[in-house]
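Exercise (ungraded).
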Amino acid sequence: MPHLPPSVLDRVLPIRSWARVYSRQDLSRDGLAAVIVTVMLIPQSLAYAMLAGMPPEAGIYASILPIIAYALFGSSRVLAVGPVAVVSLMTAAALGEVAEAGTATYASAALTLAALSGAMLLAMGLMRMGFVANFLSHPVIAGFITASGILIAMGQLGPLLGIGVKGASLPELLDGIGGKITGLSWRTTLIGGLSLAFLTWVRRHMKATLRGAGAGPVLADALAKSGPVLAVVASTLAVWALEWQDAGVAVVGHVPAALPPFTLPGFSLALIRELALPALLISVVGFVESVSVAQTLAARKRQRIQPDQELIGLGAANLAAGFSGGFPVTGGFARSVVNADAGAVTPAAGIFTALGLAFAGLVLTPLLHFLPKATLAATIIIAVLGLVDLSILRRAFGYSRADFTAVAGTILVTLLFGVEAGISAGVLLSIGLHLWRSSRPHVAEVGLVAGTEHFRNILRHRVITDPAVVTLRIDESLYFANTRYLEELILQRSANAPGLRHVILMCSAVNEIDMTALDALEALNHHLRDRGISLNLSEVKGPVMDRLQRTSFLDQLTGSVFLSQHEAFRVLTTRAGEGLDARPGPRQSGGARGACDGPEFRSGRGLWPLGNGR
Amino acid sequence: MPHLPPSVLDRVLPIRSWARVYSRQDLSRDGLAAVIVTVMLIPQSLAYAMLAGMPPEAGIYASILPIIAYALFGSSRVLAVGPVAVVSLMTAAALGEVAEAGTATYASAALTLAALSGAMLLAMGLMRMGFVANFLSHPVIAGFITASGILIAMGQLGPLLGIGVKGASLPELLDGIGGKITGLSWRTTLIGGLSLAFLTWVRRHMKATLRGAGAGPVLADALAKSGPVLAVVASTLAVWALEWQDAGVAVVGHVPAALPPFTLPGFSLALIRELALPALLISVVGFVESVSVAQTLAARKRQRIQPDQELIGLGAANLAAGFSGGFPVTGGFARSVVNADAGAVTPAAGIFTALGLAFAGLVLTPLLHFLPKATLAATIIIAVLGLVDLSILRRAFGYSRADFTAVAGTILVTLLFGVEAGISAGVLLSIGLHLWRSSRPHVAEVGLVAGTEHFRNILRHRVITDPAVVTLRIDESLYFANTRYLEELILQRSANAPGLRHVILMCSAVNEIDMTALDALEALNHHLRDRGISLNLSEVKGPVMDRLQRTSFLDQLTGSVFLSQHEAFRVLTTRAGEGLDARPGPRQSGGARGACDGPEFRSGRGLWPLGNGR
């Protein structure tokens, strides 16, 4: 291994930062947390495997090696990686297109999907593309998770009631349920209904009841969180005692007692091509969800996570899942919160959890034989109903129509067409609405506030203006998406304005002028010149001015570039009577090439010839 | 027809604006222009039909009804609509995926493509979506057209030399040419080579030679523009006289003498699904090209065009093409410039051109029998080499790396993978690079310029600062793509800064704060409060403040919102010793809810309670 400076090695292998200072106290804390999380994860892994259309043991396998891989490369101390609800739903949607659930082809395709996702995440991490997560706005993420929660809950009504329901979207699910409601197995419905009722009571009242009975807060909390385990144990015993597995109640059945196998994902080009887009969507959604959880938990302890390193950690985890009989995984909210609340301090807690689950996979699996799927369905429904939060719509509606459109659109498309279409719609809507909004920027005509050097919107303030000079403050960068709109607007304002001699574009809010906008400014310059009006700029930012000076635009400019709007106004209102010279005017007060006195110059650091550094 | 006010009717049917005032002078001008354009268009229509893989008469049909449809609905006075080089290339690429060139299926699919494109354009026009054209930046358009020109020229080497060459991308074309170079027909190559040489001479030297021989400028110009027609006539006569059509020279062959037929495009769902994306790309590219041409020509005469109306005009034209045996069309540069230069004043010139071509289609087609395809190929090559302009790369490199990446990427992808991939890459690159750039905005720490009220970048100017107060001016709107970056930056700046008590975000360049950014500001507020630092805002724009006031953010804000940065600095540097109060501070100088004196207020129009209108 090449000799790298310790700091680089620390960044690449975050495990070094905590493993070297591991203490006995850390060990006991992590160990205790691991016990609690393992107990919680046994039913959850089985449930999410079922949600993903995978055999139950795949859920356990997917919770073992991936979390160890994350512990080596991830940057969060308490994130727990494994199967999660939304990603499992997306997995089922993706695999359902290429294979029949329950077949060997399906399970094999799941390995390919996980490995693909892992490779993509790793590649993005190495290319430091953590910023792609930024292209999902909060409202869109919230809307997507809400709609996914609804889809998951509806889909689980099938196993809950003992009817077969398949569908990747709300219309398909409703069709499926409606058609089969007559085929109910009353025993399954009974088990499912009782589990649901019990879990609901646990979530809402158990903690209070236990506290009332005198239990301490920590114990009450721990017992309340173990509701699903209690339901699993109780229903398994009931089915075993009553022998209902032969009376129509679907059970988990035989779960091989084994450690995660070493598996090779299929590398057929056709399969990769079919799964490429779903893998990308799963990677992005998984990453965004995981990073949100990790950041929330890190903030509690004043820790910070590194998004690019998180990509590498999650990539390694998914590759591990692909090579050990699992399916796509990511950092999960419920399991991570439980991990953190249970006292975990380092990722070693995750490693111990993995060992605990491996042990359970070897030893406890015979006990799962009689576990009814209806109970697992009930645990999923209760878990995801916590994800559904329609209040985001009301918040967005009150604040920003663009955000509201994005979140409402995302929810609708996800419900109507499934998760892949939904998240794609969310990204496109977020970006599209942002572009649309910035393609119609706010432009204020401004005037001078008497007695000051400030300029304010003529529509909102009492200001001084001059009929020969129009100042337009453009509240947006000038780039290809808004160029045409601005050209139109400026030309319209300067048409039918007799006596108008000078147009000033106040660029205090212009952070960029790209090539398309530059071409448009040149065209505008010519247009206005034909009408006998000069074009001037004021308050151009340093980086923007640097670029303009590398072009011929400033030479062609009929007017001047002013450092401050006040200077521009002062100079041009005194020159108003002169009209437009055919030659470009001298650069005023810009220091670009001129010697002028004025308060703006006494404090420069001598960088004036390079432009307005403001 | 419902009774609409005349102005609405004028907008919907632009024909009304010029038809009602049509004079005899207009008639003679338009008529003359039509004669010139018709003569030019006969070979060009055949050539572009060949380029699109269509039978030659389709080119003539596509130049008749579409231009009449445009004349009714389009907003340009001089735009000539018909087959153009780039769109014909895209047509061939799209149809090549669904049928074999030269078959009836191919021609039928072309009708569907044109009708689809027409319907999309019409829909976009009715929804006033003209702004979608803005999402192609100038450099990307220039790069795409340049690369398309290269592809077209390479592809035409086949017919020019008499070898069969097929390919939608440069690698395919080079493969095809390399493989067949031994199968050359020397006669074809001779004709092709002579045509090419003649046309090159015409383009470069003919006008000068004619002027030298004493011809007037207008006559010289007209003769120079009719170079292709001369080449066509000469080579047709040569082939006919020498009977070379039986000696290996491919000729146009039998062209039915007929008016455009009434055809029904196929409506099979499978075909529509396959052609939907290509139709969309053709619509957008055609629209962008057409609008550029129309705007350039309109600017010469101080006219303006309406992009949304142009969508409707082009939509009608393409629908007409689909129902009259044509293929996708748009406003063409060469034909429109010739039209305008020949003196056209209204779209009636286009109608007369259509009539002229219909006449030619009925009467002159037998004369085309012996027209060698090599000559048509030569006319195309000469025409498109005028489109190739690699200087855009140099310009972009010098001005903006983002623009350079977008144009270079577009050119490369177009050459390597074909036009559809190329234009898609161009759009994605333009938008993606813009988002990437605005996700890493320029943030300047600013200080007070002594003796003034201005604040400038501490790195570029000598300014006054205070260790207890940090002011960050964010040169970008706050939205989902840059939220994370800014959060990191602000937290980093305020970490390890002993003595820091107040952070001011100077929002003079912040045009929007979306929900994601709002959440981040709230989180930032909390983070800083935990560190004993207050968060303040200054110079918040009116529309932004209006929105913030509808949320609870301002109540939670530990600091205050100041109208001017100077006020913020003044107040906070005097309070620096006090430290952070747990309760939100009073809103200073904002007039939001406070009575403060100061020069900023004497001139307000009384709208202060609604926020800082600046």
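Further reading is listed at the end of the chapter. For now, observe: Confidence is low (pLDDT under 50) at residues 581-614 of chain A. Chain A has two domains: 23-367+374-431, 443-602.
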